[in-house]
């Protein structure tokens, strides 16, 4: 077994928390069940890693197997990467071809290998109509860097692909080209949507969020009656604005819906508009150039936070449409210009 | 009846009613509960409102004290209170109105300057109390003060009237004249 | 207002009726009767206070508010004045009630003493003690004022001494400086300078003359060492005049 492969395997195994070790290793499907049973999970991680590597050596693990382990790990820890959303489109008038997984995989691999001699491309098909692709980039002269791979999650029946953010900017056009050609599309466009939560991105893009969906990080469950606050146990406390509260609740339900919101971390608004002010003669008034301003909202669960603004009394209901349109428009990066 | 008047109804025997006005229900609720937990010889009623004017179709008792709760972390609550003040009759401000500013403890989160609130209270000649309603012990102390004020404003304490209390609570220093 | 007052009068009456029902159980009733009575008394005080407030509101609303629209600053000033008025009224009320209390107390004291006569009682003992203490206070105040005066006199004397010593020292200083100035003047006077110059001139002239005579004698090639008179003259001519 190659030294680099062994080192990479060792580092990957050290990354995996002990609680998930068994599940990840069995999902990897490289070591047999009996071998997995014999692994002693109670020892220190270094010894555990050594044991597993010995077993892998016996089975002659290759670069592809190691890449698969990486994919399995990333599937479980998908929130460690920042995912960008890409939409592909065909020319109008083209037929919808039937998707052939094997053909797609071989075509994709060929394109990349033709352009760059040294790339490692691995595929894993997820049962739920998704294929996970891992690409480790090298150059004409150097081996692929296995520690900075790019991950692509492609849904074959749809024109959407999710690509993890990669530091190597030069590889991006090549990747896009390969995707376009392998999937027989003409264009690939990046949407202004970015998040660490792949499932939330999926829900927004495929408009699945009005059904309850599973979230790896379960957030605070929605209280169906947020009016629960008003159920005062004390009859001596009387709420005067019940109507107003109900109105706010209704408006919030209408804009956001009664289901849990997809999880996004931030929304960014880039303003390039002229400054409008009632006070003439101010410092910023009467300027011809547009005012450049960047506003960023960040939160562990942005959309739930926005939803709770009006009921908590921090903002007026209804909220600004710029905030409420995020899932509908599939954007969380906005550029606002004068019309 | 869009304007609140202090003496337009007869008082109920042994009952004192306070109206808490503020945008954040959670804070008002907590304060109301703390007030009701206080030992008090008179019966207390607490009404919570987000804004004035109050809906007119409800039969409510005479309001003895109005407490406007301003959260220094949010400009929205200040604006809300300023709008509500025009729906209160001027005779209320003879000791039956009090301003309560919360959130002054976390200076970095404050978007409303303390001087703004001080000026507001000075303009309306009403006492201004600072209290962090999130902290249990401060809230309990403030509830005690408010209950005592409420009793005086309802006329349950012989010998002291609301106007008397107002002149006792008057600040001797005027707010800084510089606009911030 | 009258009907409302009647209505409120009925409520305490109803309370009294409830009171009557409870009288059947003596033990618990005893306490609850007291509670009821306390409640009634409290309600009475409350109602009195509330009535007072309503009356004062009515009186206040009978006063005419000024019709003209005043500027904000003027309103503020007026409000300050009114607030100060309230404060003045309150403080004068306090002072008056204090005075009244004092008068009441002294009246009660005199009554008490008249009743009891001049036999020893706690009050008379206290009063005698008070008078003794007052006398002591007055005496010690006198003593302390005398001592203060003495202290003041001594301080004055000390100050005077300080001042005279200061003036004396100042005189000495001025004298010294005057002497020094005169000395400098003398050294720098013009007369001395001109005299010095003349002296220098004379010395130079004499030196030249000496050299001339020397030259004459030597040039004549006579043997001046043999003639005693010539020898003396030559030796004298050698003397350096600047060292004289």
From TrEMBL, chain A:
Record's keyword terms, sorted: Centromere, Chromosome, Nucleus
The keyword Nucleus is assigned to this record: yes
Segments forming a coiled coil: none
Any one of the GO CC terms: chromosome, centromeric region
Location relative to the cell: Chromosome, Centromere; Nucleus
Family (UniProt): Belongs to the CENP-N/CHL4 family.
Protein name per UniProt: Centromere protein N
Lineage, broadest ranks: Eukaryota, Metazoa, Chordata, Craniata, Vertebrata
From TrEMBL, chain B:
PANTHER family on file: CENTROMERE PROTEIN M
Main location, first listed in the record: nucleus
Domain of life: Eukaryota
Entry-linked Pfam families: CENP-M
Localization per record: Chromosome, Centromere; Nucleus
Protein's recorded name: Centromere protein M
Database matches in Gene3D superfamilies: P-loop containing nucleotide triphosphate hydrolases
InterPro entries (alphabetical): Centromere_Cenp-M, P-loop_NTPase
Gene (UniProt): Cenpm
This protein's UniProt keywords: Centromere, Chromosome, Nucleus
Organismal lineage: Eukaryota, Metazoa, Chordata, Craniata, Vertebrata
Keyword Nucleus: yes
From TrEMBL, chain C:
Full protein name: Centromere protein H
Tree of life domain: Eukaryota
Keyword Nucleus applies: yes
Species for this entry: Mesocricetus auratus (Golden hamster)
Family: Belongs to the CENP-H/MCM16 family.
InterPro entries, per database record: CENP-H, CENP-H_C
Chain intervals for the UniProt region annotation (Disordered): 1-30
Coiled coil ranges: 44-99, 130-189
Domain Centromere protein H C-terminal, chain residue ranges per copy: 39-238
Gene name of this polypeptide: Cenph
Compartment annotation: Chromosome, Centromere, Kinetochore; Nucleus
UniProt keyword list: Centromere, Chromosome, Coiled coil, Kinetochore, Nucleus
